Amino acid sequence: MKDAGELCRGLLRKAKSDRIAMEASLAAQAFDAGCFHAQQTAEKCLKAFLALQRVEFPYSHNLTKLTEICATIDATFRSLLPAVRPLTPYAVELRYDDSFWPSRQVAEEARSSALAVFRFVLDRLPADIRKSAE
Question: Which of 89, 3, 6, 9 lies closest to 44, judged by CA?
Fold first, then answer.
């Protein structure tokens, strides 16, 4: 079984990959894919924080739920709620709703939210762990 630091680093590497995919999708004007990867970036960052704290997290894409769990350890996580709420639907509903095609503005807002979560979480991790995502 992986130790907490190893699991955290692995999730941060996945978050970094999703961040790169988000940027590439937005550059290619694949705004739906960009929104999906924005959600995934935020999700993996939140789970990385929980993993390092040795807190079991649900296999859920619900970012509000994950943020609330993080807030039981560090109450400042509640400040992320306005950023994460709009991202949650991009995990599943967006992928299967053939009528949802986000605009550039919606995708840029998703990007901003994901990067805010990314920076917020990284600021709360030890420097040697942060390097996994930079």
Answer: 9
0.90 exceeded by the pTM? Answer: yes
Structure tokens at 54: 């040795």
- Helices assigned H by DSSP within 28-103: 31-52, 63-71, 81-84, 93-96
pLDDT digits (tens, 9 = 90+) for 78-102: 999 999 999 999 987 767 778 888 9
Token pair listed for 75: 């109450």
Two tokens, residue 127: 């420097």
**Contact (CB, 8 A) for 77 and 70:** yes
With H, G, I as helix, E, B as strand and everything else as coil, classify residue 13: helix
Number of C-alpha atoms within 13 angstroms, CB side, residue 35? Answer: 23
How far apart CA 94 and CA 6 sit, in angstroms, is 31
Decide which of 1.20.120.330, 3.40.50.261, 3.40.309.10, 1.20.120.450 is the CATH code for 4-125: 1.20.120.330
Q: How many CB atoms lie within 10 A of CB 46?
A: 25
Where do the structural domains in the chain lie, given as residue ranges? 4-125
